[in-house]
Amino acid sequence: MKPGQQTSVPSGQFQNVKEVEASAKAKMEKVIAGLQHEMTSMRTGRASVNLFDGITVEAYGSQMPINHVATLHVPEPTLITIQPYDVSQMGLIEKAIRSSDLGLNPSNDGKQIRVPIPTLTEERRKDMVKHLHHVAEEHRVRLRNVRRDSNEAIKKLVKDKLISEDEDRRGHEETQKLTDAYITKIDQLAKGKEKDILEVK
């Protein structure tokens, strides 16, 4: 399961509205964490070691993240250097970067890999912003799914006579407030990332 993806709340696990709210909040936090994780691997005009977060290398018989097989540095704003712990892994690391969808062209001098970060074209920036909006919307939908599951859990508490109608109403109001607050967080994160992508260095 990808970070931030949600499963439905099993009905009957809650005894009161507070438990429903606590569960919803924890799930919404995971949605935000999932979005942040996805956004770190989106390219901007600046070099960042987080760029390679989603890339794995075939090493020692298993797929491993690049930062588990090498040290990454950003010596200048448009360059990332990669120092493999084992130089025999150099070709595999290069291949993994080349075959990713980042559009980067690594080279090595026998000791380390140099990855120049080219300036993004205006068209590429616009495509990335479009992709960013799509990813942000997916995470808003996940938040709304958490809200739906929470509201269903609250309705069940009423049906099972575990809470009063007043608590039922308050529970729905609090769930909506929580959803609005987390949607605002998504909007702010997406806005910040969009600014990073569109900023021409």
Automatic annotation (TrEMBL):
Q: Where in the cell is it found?
A: Cytoplasm
Residue intervals of the Ribosome recycling factor domain = 35-198
Question: Would the keyword Transcription regulation turn up in this protein's UniProt record?
Answer: no
Q: What's one GO BP annotation on this UniProt entry? A: translational termination
Question: Per the similarity annotation, which family is this?
Answer: Belongs to the RRF family.
* Gene Ontology terms, MF aspect: ribosomal large subunit binding
Q: Which GO terms describe its cellular component?
A: cytoplasm
Read off the lineage from the record. Bacteria, Pseudomonadati, Acidobacteriota, Terriglobia, Bryobacterales
Protein's UniProt name: Ribosome-recycling factor
Q: What are the protein's UniProt keywords?
A: Cytoplasm, Protein biosynthesis
The coding gene here is frr
Function recorded in the entry: Responsible for the release of ribosomes from messenger RNA at the termination of protein biosynthesis. May increase the efficiency of translation by recycling ribosomes from one round of translation to another.
Q: What is its main location?
A: cytoplasm
